[in-house]
Amino acid sequence: VEVTARVTVADRVPDVDLTVRIGTLSLANPVMPASGCFGPELAPLTPLHRLGALVTKTLFSAARSGNAANRITDTGYGALNSVGIPSPGASKFRATVLPEYRKHGVPVIVSIGGLGIGEYFHIAEELTDDCFDAFEVNVSCPNLERGGLSIGADAEQVGRVTQGVVERAAGRPVIVKLTPNVSSIAEMARVAEAAGAAALTVANTFVGLAIDMRTRRPVLGTTTGGLSGPAIRPLALRLVWETALAVDIPVIGCGGIATTQHAAEFLVAGATAVQVGTATFSRPDTMVRIVDELPGELAQLGCRSALEVIGTLAS
Amino acid sequence: MTLLPMPPEDPPRASPDCHPATVLGNRIVADRYWRMSLAAPHVAQTARPGQFVLLTPSHSPEDSVVLPRPMAIYDTDASAGTIDILYGVVGFGTRQLTTFHIGDGITTVGPLGRPFEVAAGTRRLLLIGRGIGACSLTLLARAQVARGAEVVALLSGRHADAVIGAELCRSTGAQVLEVNDADGSSAPTALHARLLDLLDGEPPQFIASCGSDRLANLAQTLGRRWGTAVQVSVEAHMACGLGYCHGCSTGRQGDSVESPLVCTVGPVFELASP
Questions:
Q1: How close are the terminal C-alpha atoms of chain A, in Å?
Q2: What does each C-alpha distance from B141 to B17, B30, B172, B228 come to in angstroms?
Q3: pLDDT in tens, A36-56
């Protein structure tokens, strides 16, 4: 019975074109992981070659230890984390990490970070000759000792970081990952676009706090952290919609996506592609399931391609 | 407590798989503790003592629980392809676990983590577990008794009903000592004296501990006296179980820039002598 059912479903898969473009990069489908919520360690659990792209954990030039425990907690409908971007550093990344990403035959987007503007430029330069397809510039981590969010919340610094990385990207598309912790994401988006960004990821986590009431202490070692997961999906959808209206470059939607319908919502709101983060922890096959189900979801909306549904929110 | 990463195991641990394991049973056994049985053939056949699984206590992606929970593998039946998990209901994730019924599927990833490593030729072992921490030691007791070693399992809890694993350890042929806070028998000084009395004449060549820093310290004291290596299993808030999210740092000293991750470098570590 099971085999018959599977064949029937396969027969019904509609002919929907899932390809999308992020700058000069062509993706077979619009589904990719969110930086930090993914690694090639997932390969035994889910077929990574089926994804539109792979996104690395944010890389710093020098090795970093990351933050004190606890680093992550389940808040109910959300995960609050303050991992603090432990990083192997550029040389170890090149030798042992990047090859594991390259194995799967899909575009690799390297997320980069820094504690100050110069560090972004430095890591971009160090990676010039390496084999990957795009940069994602993380100017929105809320859990760093300095830089991170403070760069992402300052329009002038967002512009400088973006322009500097674009100049050092050797022609690769530069995606800028924006923070939601600002009063006007549209302003940040326009600044990044003017500085040469090929696309924008919207968004990173929202700053939050979890309390252990037995001890009345913060659950996380750094007191506050970044909230992800289902709780932030409507917030992220609003930001994606607002950003897509503000700029002409593609927006990659990110925030609480756990089902195919969620992914389609982000496309309707104006996203060209989507990133899946927290949902992968509980269900490692989430991204591939969305790739499998998206043609049916889009066909139900009367679309023959992903492009047809992007930014079609009715007023 | 200083944790030292253990060298990579030989042969390497089995690669984990991920599938919706069918719930075969899920019932309260004592106090706040529940026992869940799952059809998980790959885990049942490849897990080594000290390894764990990640269970996702949500029925759909729309549920409130968003992170999976790491669970020690309490018991396995390789021929039946089943595993048993024993869990304490302490928060909304474990409360949600109690809502799974026979026939439900529950996303299960495993086996995961660094297992215990007992040197060949070890004739006598002391296992020290506290509360739910005893679940990391039960497979070890079974495996070591099966290979002919003598196992003493000291199991501690808040009160008599909160002592976990006594029946299972006894059934494997281990010698079981049950102690608890309610009658005062679990006080570390009393335990120290009792274990010296029992084992000082012929000390164990291996000590394992899980579930209590105080008991790990006791294990360390005894290990130093006897010249015996001590391995501890530790727990942490966890998300991916595979090492990529870096959420489960021990926050303790290790041999690399980042303190070791519980999910891949652990959960079993060697306890350093001070």
A1: 44
A2: 25, 21, 7, 17
A3: 999 999 999 999 999 999 999
How far, in Å, CA of A131 to CA of A146, rounded? 30
Buried-exposed string B157-189: b where 16+ CB fall within 10 A, e elsewhere: beebebbbbbebbeebebebbbbbeeeeebeee
Give residues 244 to 263 of B whose Cβ lies within 8 Å of A.
244-251, 257-259
DSSP reduced 3-state for A191: helix
Contact B249 A284 (CB under 8 A): no
Question: Using CB atoms, which residue from A229, A278, A282 is nearest to B56?
Answer: A282
CA distance B191 to chain A (A): 28
Is the ipTM of this structure higher than 0.90? yes
This prediction has a pTM of 0.94
pLDDT of residue A142: 85
Q: Please report the number of interchain residue pairs, chain A to chain B, with beta-carbon separation below 8 angstroms.
A: 124
Encode pLDDT of B45-63 as tens digits.
999 999 999 999 999 999 9
Nearest-Cα distance to chain B for A218, in Å, is 14
Structure tokens at A31: 């589904």
DSSP-assigned beta bridge partners for residue B154: B128, B177
Of A37, A39, A68, the CB nearest to B251: A68
Give residue B271's Cα distance to chain centre.
15
Cβ-contact A310, A271 below 8 angstroms: yes
Total residues belonging to chain B: 274
CA-derived radius of gyration, chain A? 19
Mutation target to probe the B interface, by most B beta carbons within 10 A, among A2, A38, A41, A56 is A41
